[in-house]
Design goal:
Strand content: 5-15%
Shape: globular
Radius of gyration: 24 Å
Largest sheet: 6 strands, mixed
Oligomer: single chain
Low-confidence stretches: none
Mean pLDDT: 96
């Protein structure tokens, strides 16, 4: 197995000479039927409106084989060191179930370690939800609040919001504190009944400054609430590593463990997301999410790119980035439940593949990860679609849609339901971007030939959501392998942290502009 830069591949040289096909001309019913791949969780990935044809697909298959993408995925699953920057294994897929060999590290079977954490989460969440475990003043817990930042917030928050509408009335409400901005915590804490609130403190190291600052703010709020007999330690659990200061701290009711092989942006299917989702919705819902993700992980092992949705998505993305030279991608879910999913994918993609050096620390001579942004439809149509349709830049689009709504609360207006209107808009946008519209008035001219894919399913439930999450995680992984990047570290976030500490040590009482000048 060889890790090499993409521009050293013979197939990549061939790909660079292949002009994108014109989807304005090529998009047909037959193409829509042919260019479709089944994904886990009952989803399917359709790339009929992407600028690829059979010749390009043949070269993309050759590139996948030459870069040994499936072999590298197998190596990752089998516990080889893939995170070269930190010399670590990469095991987030193992949190949803074992696929290949048993992985041993740190003197233990890591699959069993993750299963043990799931068992602990299941038992604890059931005892909280049944009222067996109560707050320190005897009230049952009705609200959970996750305190964490980055991957400890974005993924779990996106998944919670995505499932909230599909659950019954027995769910616990969930809130999130992430920003070190004190107004964030203040807004969440305002009106909370501390006696019936359980806080989940998420910090792998147990030393994350923003998270511990917010923890202390919460503890101070509880202590000064005037509630007689309340004990903050009985209202807080930790998700952390076995070696962290929080692991055996008396300041928390219980600790659930993660390890160094689960990166923050990949941690939603570990205890980082599992504790919150199991408390809020019940463990069975989280188990279904894991099942959908596991199904997608297994499908991602397919060598044939026309049968492997995540692999095809990754390869087309590289074609768009390196041949078409398109630096941006928009994520457009036509599901309000997924309104925070683009923010999670921003971190997943941009923190993973926003790199300028390869796995050996050598500068690369080609473009890597794109800028990711997005908004749920149809809100986005009234925001930035003007630029997408008639702007000077082509922005590849990734649509997501479901045939049925989650809550089944709909009415017929002018002959159609709201869900039918939503999906009509989704389909219309795909066609409008691809086909455009001729008009003698240049201001009303739509050039068309704007590229898009769409992931569809029957309904956004936990299993479909797990598969959707894994699809994008695996897409990003494959693209990292293609570009020869380490997609599993994030050195780019460190410099700002170091300088922030310098500011706090030397000029913390200054105005922003004075501190700005003094730190130089």
């Amino acid at each position: 197995m060889e890790f090499k830069n993409i521009d050293s591949c013979t197939s990549f040289t061939q790909l660079m000479s292949q002009e994108p096909c014109n989807v304005k001309k090529e998009l047909t019913k037959n193409r829509i039927q042919a260019y479709c791949i089944a994904e886990g969780g009952g989803l399917s990935y359709n790339y009929a409106a992407m600028p690829v044809d059979e010749a390009i697909l043949k070269t993309l298959q050759e590139l996948s084989d030459e870069q040994q993408l499936i072999e590298k995925y197998v190596a990752l699953l089998n516990g080889e060191i893939i995170n070269t920057g930190e010399k670590r294994l990469v095991l987030h897929q193992l949190t949803r179930g074992q696929i290949l060999s048993t992985v041993f590290a740190d003197g233990e079977d890591k699959g069993e370690f993750y299963k043990t954490q799931l068992d602990n989460i299941k038992t604890f969440s059931e005892e909280v939800r049944s009222g067996k475990i109560k707050g320190s003043t005897g009230k049952t817990f009705k609200t959970v609040v996750q305190i964490g930042i980055g991957g400890s917030d974005l993924g779990p928050r996106a998944l919670y919001l995505a499932l909230k509408g599909s659950q019954d009335s027995s769910q616990l409400a969930a809130k999130f504190i992430s920003n070190v901005d004190p107004d964030d915590a203040a807004n969440v804490l305002e009106g909370l009944d501390f006696e019936s609130t359980l806080f989940i403190l998420v910090s792998k190291s147990g030393t994350t400054l923003e998270t511990l600052t917010n923890r202390d703010l919460v503890i101070e709020a509880i202590k000064t609430s005037g509630i007689k007999g309340i004990n903050p330690a009985k209202h807080m659990v930790a998700v952390t590593s076995k070696t962290s200061p929080l692991a055996s701290s008396e300041s928390v009711l219980k600790a659930f463990f993660i390890d160094d092989y689960i990166g923050g942006r990949y941690s939603s299917t570990s205890a980082v997301g599992g504790v919150l989702l199991s408390l809020a919705f019940g463990y069975e819902t989280f188990s279904q999410l894991l099942s959908g993700a596991h199904e997608a992980d297994k499908l991602a092992l397919g060598m044939d790119i026309t049968q492997n949705a995540a692999l095809m998505d990754a390869l087309i993305g590289v074609y768009l980035r390196n041949v078409c030279l398109l630096p941006t991608t928009a994520i457009l879910p036509y599901s309000q439940a997924l309104n925070r999913f683009p923010a999670h994918l921003q971190q997943l993609d941009m923190e993973s593949n926003g790199k300028h050096v390869n796995r050996r620390g050598e500068a690369v001579a080609y473009a890597t990860g794109p800028v990711i942004f997005g908004e749920s439809g149809t809100n986005g149509q009234h925001s930035f679609y003007q630029l997408l349709h008639q702007g000077t830049d082509t922005v590849p689009l990734q649509f997501i849609g479901f045939s049925e709504s989650q809550q089944d609360k709909d009415i017929v207006v002018e002959g159609s339901t709201s869900q039918e209107k939503l999906n009509a808009n989704l389909v219309a946008q795909i066609v409008a971007f691809a086909r455009g519209k001729e008009d003698t008035n240049p201001n009303k001219q739509f050039e068309g030939n704007r590229y898009s894919s769409v992931i569809t399913g029957k309904q956004l439930d936990a299993k479909a959501l797990g598969a959707l999450l894994a699809h994008f995680e695996n897409k990003v992984m494959f693209q990292g392998f293609l570009w020869n990047l380490n997609s599993f570290d994030q050195e780019g976030v460190q410099l700002g942290k170091v300088l922030a500490k310098k500011v706090l040590e030397g000029c913390k009482d200054d105005t922003i502009l004075k501190a700005y000048a003094d730190i130089l």
